[in-house]
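During the practical work, I selected for study one protein's amino acid sequence and its backbone structure tokens, as given directly below:
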Amino acid sequence: MELSQSHQLRLVHMHASGAEEWLCPTCGRRLLLRWQPAYEKQVLIAGDIRAIHSASRAPQPERAAAGSQPGGADMADIGGDWSAEGLRPWVRWFHEAGLDDLWNQPL
């Protein structure tokens, strides 16, 4: 059995519609992801279909070492209100959905 290569997708653009455009710099795979109101994925360029693609909004080590903004590359790239006030609707949703105490629940 041949092992698949692992490629890392990078967020390259946030569209006004809310769709996120992700790119694999290794093989050229490009996709649009929309999270709300319902998850949707559109592959624009297939790239290497045998590769395992993963993605993260966490800053890449080389970017962090190069002096990216303190909040992480995703905040600088996509904008948004990352202050406590801006996150308040999310905190409220977690509370209403019963997820704020999820870690304290027995398995």
Notes: The longest strand covers residues 6-14. Residues 84-96 form the longest helix (13 residues). Confidence is low (pLDDT under 50) at residues 63-78.
